[in-house]
Design goal:
Radius of gyration: 20 Å
Largest sheet: 3 strands, antiparallel
Organism: Hibiscus trionum
Mean pLDDT: 75
Order of helices and strands: EEEHHH
Number of domains: 2
Number of strands: 3
Keywords: Metal-binding, Zinc, Zinc-finger
Number of helices: 3
Protein name: GRF-type domain-containing protein
Strand content: 5-15%
Shape: flat
GO molecular function, one term: zinc ion binding
Length: 151
């Protein structure tokens, strides 16, 4: 258990190979994939890692700067709410199948509040928020540095 009473849960979203800077290679000389951590201590923070992890090398490098504690708490709550909604959605689909309203094959095609769109929008907003927070922190650091230089 970490501080704030949250368990140490680690999950990772899909891999990305899109680079907005120089390509990264792991110690296996393979193109390192960029992933998003959803652990309690780094929710939404992106990093590079070996595409063959855990069988491959142990290459790891953060892509994003450290996120402020306040943003971590907000992202953690948003992530937890998304998980709760996903479980509720699954339960509702199961109930529909049990009631005979839809067949098992149809349940995945039923549009319950367009869940895929909602989840996609949510993740997009979270990643945009993370980028905004990181950019703001970088700008604050640069302003502080410039102020110190002009003293």
């Amino acid at each position: 258990m970490e501080k704030n009473g949250y368990p140490s849960i680690v999950s990772v979203s899909r891999r990305e190979f899109a680079y907005d800077e120089e390509e990264k290679k792991c110690d296996c000389e393979k193109l390192a994939s960029r992933k998003t951590a959803w652990s309690d201590s780094n929710p939404g923070r992106r990093y590079y890692g070996c595409p063959d992890f855990p069988r491959g090398c142990k290459y790891f490098e953060w892509y994003d700067a450290r996120i402020p504690d306040r943003a971590i708490d907000l992202l953690r709550k948003l992530r937890d709410n998304e998980r709760i909604l996903a479980k509720e959605n699954k339960s509702l689909r199961r109930q529909l199948r049990i009631c005979g309203t839809i067949s098992a094959g149809e349940s995945n095609n039923v549009n319950l509040d367009d869940n895929n769109s909602v989840q996609s929008d949510f993740k997009g907003k979270v990643l945009t928020t993370i980028d905004d927070v990181v950019n703001e922190n970088e700008l604050r650091g640069k302003i502080k540095s410039l102020k110190e230089k002009t003293k």
